[in-house]
Design goal:
With 814 residues, this protein is an alpha+beta fold. It contains 19 helices and 41 strands. The chain has a ten-stranded antiparallel sheet, covered by helices on one side. Strands 6, 7, 8, 13, 17 and 18 form a six-stranded antiparallel sheet that branches. A hairpin with a 6-residue loop joins strand 4 and strand 5. The protein starts with a strand and ends with a strand. Bound molecules: alpha-D-glucopyranose (GLC) (2 copies). One alpha-D-glucopyranose binds next to helix 8.
């Protein structure tokens, strides 16, 4: 069953009933100001950092689900009936409800009792505010008088403190109201120079700034007392729970329409000009006034919206395809690219499954996210690389996370996730392949953000390699440390205390447990750095790195191969993990994909064998499982992985992040049919028809799909902020469609299913637009390349200095 449909033309998903299985959300904002918004207007906003600068309050794990957001109440003042045009929070019946989630905006509209209401929410590019643009229309034959109530609940900035420190927080809330603007200024009197404002284009009949005054004692958002009675009390108390509620009254003649604009924004004042008049505690509003005035004008709102749409148009234009499969087109052209930008902006910090409190920017995660957005925002990718490298330690290791506001490494989590350094090399390689900006390697970057420790970025990369070399185990494979890509395979933790972190409470010295996954990542990273140094003319260094890559590949073939697939690891006792000799967890997906991608055992046929094992033991109709058989009990020596009930999360779900590694591997082996088949199994658009089972949004990837050991096999969970976004984009764009940036230019090397007669694509790359036409003449992947009508040897498009370059690929010829 579906809960809506794709409107590809407008690049929107249209939710046609509000009671989706889970809230189906979207994101507002792209630079400094962000919001999460669900299909019923739930969600919250923050400036830069979801923990430290939270504007509005949101209660995770709430009942009813998804209560709290950007709500409007309409009240027919003659009859006294009231409802919310976004369905929540009143859950009143509505006609023609539709939520249109688009690129950086959400529109929710409905009709009730012949009153049409359409709301558009978005953040204007370059601003730190969000616009709620409401249009009301009277579709009845009589004049109607409506009360409109807006509502937000302010968060007292630090979201964690806000949710825990009540003895203080119930006493510090402060608000000002001037004209139609409600100012939230908690802690402004002391150490903050920022405040929030909630403005309205209409004169107010009244307002509320105290939650209890608005809702009434013991009442919730579904039936606020003020709305029910049609009267506000102009509450203005210090302490308790600050809210922003405008009350306006609008009469509409038959057929009449009215636009009402609300602005919710974040603003900072210069330290010396915080107050006005001087000597008072009143906010100096002069600096924000012009901004408010500007965006309360309908033409300005329209221009801002157009500019937002143009921004997205440009971003998405970088890669557009027309293939025989609508699910491929839709995800590649619109939604997967969009999700990659969202993961760029938010890493793993704020979604409906990430509270915005616990997790900063992950080192490993952000480096992988970059693979999906580097072509859209290369300048920002460059900055991200430098920020990440600055959290590296002098040993070459890295802080596992950093806080976006300070950009400093997070001490509470620390380092020693031994895969982290390799991802930096892979991210820089992807950046260079996209941009050819070799100058980035000369950038001087500190370690641990300590001034005076700067070296070139190239040296940072070298230390990434050295870090692994300094942490080699008994078989010559890399030591795993706290964990590798799989955060839950904790071979040095041995945790038996409830509540202890599996990742940060390692108890062993870590000198035995080794990771085949890191071996594969190291092989890839050393190989890339070898090519990079070769390009720089550092032949000896390049040879040395190539030798290291080959050496690790050889060690992996010797000690990382289990006979029919790649082993996962050696544990603290030197015993195999992910081996036929194990009772459970005999085979893991990660090493099959990553070793193949690293080219390990390609020539020897190991990769072919490994992919057959994946198909036989791990592939299901809902995607490829992370491991089999699932762990049925807790194993002290394996850690968190076995803490999850079978089929969930790292314990044998379809952990979607890993699936593209299998798609890429199949493409590397030339198996176009299988590569695309795996791609489509987890493609959210393709799964739209089973929304009742899948439950998560049909327009973005989720982290996991429940595995077959569960009773909800096929249910997706933890949508949006997952490395799945970047890797699926890479798998389809670079390996199946085969349009792949390389150090010396763009490569075209499609590996398509036999049934595909071809496809066409446009790709902007290093300032040139490539118009690519792929035509199948026979089965197989053998290809002939023509550039501007001229046949070319190989698969690399030579660089031609013109705006458009025509590329033709004939497949299956000869
Ligand atoms: C989560 C983490 C990621 C990790 C994965 C597997 O997605 O963000 O860093 O690789 O889980 O454990
Ligand atoms: C838990 C999750 C894992 C995630 C980690 C991040 O272990 O299972 O997916 O990577 O938390 O801290």
């Amino acid at each position: 069953m579906r809960y809506g449909y794709f409107d590809d033309e407008n690049r929107e998903y249209v939710v046609t009933r509000p009671d989706t299985p889970l809230p189906w959300i979207n994101y507002l904002g792209m630079e400094d100001y962000f919001g999460l918004i669900s299909n019923t207007a739930g969600g919250y906003s923050f400036y830069q950092d979801a923990r430290l600068r939270r504007l509005t309050r949101y209660r995770y794990n709430n009942v009813p689900l998804d209560m709290g957001g950007r709500y409007i109440y309409l009240r027919d003042d003659r009859q006294g009936e009231f409802w919310s045009p976004t369905w929540m929070p009143t859950r009143h019946e509505l006609e023609d409800y539709a939520c249109r989630h688009g690129m950086g905006y959400t529109r929710i509209g409905s009709t009730y009792n012949e009153i049409r209401a359409d709301m558009r929410y978005f953040v204007p590019p370059g601003e730190t505010l969000e616009i709620w643009d409401l249009t009301l229309e009277n579709r009845s034959n009589e004049e109607r008088v409506l009360s409109v109530f807006s509502s937000v609940e302010f968060c007292l900035w630090e979201a964690h403190d806000d949710a825990t420190n009540f003895q203080r927080n119930l006493n510090i809330g402060e608000i000002e109201v001037a004209d139609s603007v409600i100012y939230h200024k908690t802690e402004y009197r002391e150490r903050r120079n920022h405040f929030a404002y909630f403005a309205c284009s209409e004169p107010l009949v009244g307002y509320e700034t105290q939650r209890e005054a608005f809702l009434g004692p013991y009442r919730g958002w579904e039936a606020p007392q003020a709305v029910q009675s049609g009267k506000t009390s102009q509450s203005l108390r210090v302490g308790w729970s600050p809210v922003g509620v405008h009350h306006i009254r609008i009469s509409l003649k038959p057929g009449e329409q009215r636009q009402v604009i609300f602005l919710l924004g974040y603003h900072e004042n210069p330290e010396a000009e915080k107050f006005s008049p001087r000597g008072t505690q009143t906010i100096n509003k002069r600096t924000v006034a012009p901004l408010i005035e500007k965006y309360l004008q309908p033409e300005v709102v329209e221009t801002a919206f157009t500019s937002l749409q143009e921004t997205w148009e440009q971003l998405l234009d970088i890669f557009q395809v027309r293939t025989p499969d609508e699910h491929v087109d839709r995800m590649v052209n619109i939604w997967n690219a969009y999700q990659c930008m969202v993961t760029f902006n938010l890493s793993r910090s704020a979604s409906y499954f990430e509270s915005g409190i616990g997790r900063g920017m992950g080192f490993r995660d952000s480096n992988q996210d970059l693979l999906g957005f580097v072509q859209m925002v290369p300048d920002r990718a460059r900055q991200r690389i430098l920020d990440l490298a600055a959290t590296q330690l002098e040993t070459g290791g890295a802080y596992h996370q950093y806080q976006p506001l300070t950009k400093h490494g997070n001490d509470a989590v620390g380092g020693d996730f031994n895969d982290d350094p390799a991802w930096l090399v892979l991210a820089v390689a992807a950046y260079l392949k996209e941009t050819a900006d070799w100058g980035i390697l000369d950038e001087q970057v500190p370690y641990d953000n300590k001034p005076g420790t700067e070296t070139s970025l190239l040296e940072h990369l070298d230390r990434c390699i050295q870090y692994t070399l300094d942490n080699i185990g008994p078989h010559g494979l890399p030591l795993i440390g706290r964990a590798d890509w799989n955060d839950c395979l904790n071979l040095n933790t041995f945790s038996s205390k409830p509540g202890e972190s599996f990742q940060t409470s390692s108890t062993q010295d870590g000198k035995v447990a080794e990771s085949v996954v890191i071996a594969a990542l190291f092989t890839m990273a050393a190989e890339e750095l070898s090519q990079i140094t070769k390009h720089l003319g550092l032949a000896d260094e390049s040879d040395r790195l190539k030798g290291l890559a080959d050496g690790m590949a050889a060690t992996t073939r010797r000690y990382g191969w289990d006979g029919a697939w790649f082993l996962r690891a050696y544990d603290h006792f030197g015993k195999e993990v992910g081996s036929k000799s194990c009772a459970e967890g005999k085979i893991f997906v990660e090493p099959q994909g990553l070793c193949t991608m690293a080219g390990i055992g390609l020539g020897e046929g190991l990769a072919e064998t490994a992919m057959l094992a994946v198909e036989r033991h791990l592939a299901t109709e809902h995607g490829v499982l992370l491991l089999q058989p699932a762990y049925s009990e807790y194993y002290l020596h394996l850690g968190e992985i076995s803490s999850y009930p079978p089929g969930n999360k790292e314990n044998a779900s379809v952990f979607c992040h890993t699936n593209p590694w299998i798609m890429i591997s199949e493409a590397i082996l030339g198996h176009g049919d299988r590569a695309l088949d795996y791609y489509l199994r987890i493609n959210p658009s393709k799964r739209e028809v089973i929304s009742d089972l899948h439950r998560s949004e049909p327009y973005c990837y989720a982290q996991t799909i429940a595995g077959r050991d569960t009773d909800h096999f096929g249910e997706a969970k933890n949508s949006w902020l997952t490395g799945t976004a970047a890797w699926n984009y890479v798998a389809i764009m670079q390996w199946i469609l085969g349009i792949r940036p390389d150090y010396d230019g763009l490569r075209v090397e499609p590996v398509l299913p036999d049934s595909w007669q071809g496809f066409s694509a446009t790709r902007k790359f290093r300032g040139v637009i490539y118009d690519i036409e792929v035509v199948r003449q026979g089965p197989g992947n053998a290809m002939m390349l023509e550039v501007e009508g001229e046949p070319i040897e190989g698969t690399l498009i030579p660089s031609i200095n013109q705006e458009h370059v025509a590329v033709k690929v004939t497949l299956g010829k000869g």
